[in-house]
Amino acid sequence: MRRIKRNSFPFLILLLIHTFFLGLTFYRNKNRKGIFVLLVSNMGFAYLFEYFVLNLFKAYVYKPKALKNRFLDNIFGAVFSQAVFIPFTAVFLTISKSGWSAKILGSIYFSLIELLFLRLRVFKHVWWKTVYTLLLLPLYFKWSDSWYHNFVKKNSIVRFVSFFLMVMVTETNLFLLLAAFRKFRFGMGRYHTWREHFILSPLYSITFSFFTAYSLKKDNDLGAKLRVILFATCLNHLFERIKLLKNNFQFIESLLVRIVMVYVYGKYRAWIYGEREGNEK
């Protein structure tokens, strides 16, 4: 049995703590689909933030030492820190209707964790500063409040963007999993590096997710799902032709994955818009 390394313990402890509070949030509230939409939307905003701050501009480095590959280990730590711990907390604060005091305390809490991670050497600043965390997190928590309020009020823009973000987060996680199993890798040239993959794959995910959200919002039927599958197939072919994608899937394997995922996205659409709701006027 593989031993958990010392660097991984802080991440594991925080995962247990924040999962408990998220579980408590779901347990205490009946609108679980709405809470799930809020959670994944918050994760989506975190992914977009990380794309610029980490993937492109290398603001910091995580060192959980959970994976042998340093770049993947960094991404692993970032996913847990920025796309799990903070969104889980944002959902807890939003659903519990916490005010500015709780949001500021939450920001101080994460700032102290950041300082502790620096001391434990499981996290390293490049150009990021802890004061940025302290100042930005209350705004993120408030944004979560506003997003959920408008989602419950059935704001058309918020609902569509929430749908788009849910597809994008799922696609991003799927590509990470497939890349880890050497099935799907974005990059340039003969050898596709992990850095190239994490720069190009989000652009692919955003393009595909927008098309999917737009198509299924209008019609959540077989025809719309077939259009999404056809678009994904054409997009893959285009990226392969211009040598930005290495695809080790057999066609039937790729088709089966797409069928399953489009079914999942149809469920997302139903959770957000309802089973019978058609076009919004």
Automatic annotation (TrEMBL):
Q: Which domain of life is it from?
A: Bacteria
- Its transmembrane ranges are 9-28, 34-54, 75-95, 101-119, 126-144, 156-178, 198-216, 251-268
* Keywords tagged on the record: Membrane, Transmembrane, Transmembrane helix
Keyword Membrane belongs to the record: yes
Q: Does the keyword Transmembrane apply?
A: yes
Protein name from the UniProt record: Uncharacterized protein
What organism does the UniProt record list as the source?
Bacillus salipaludis
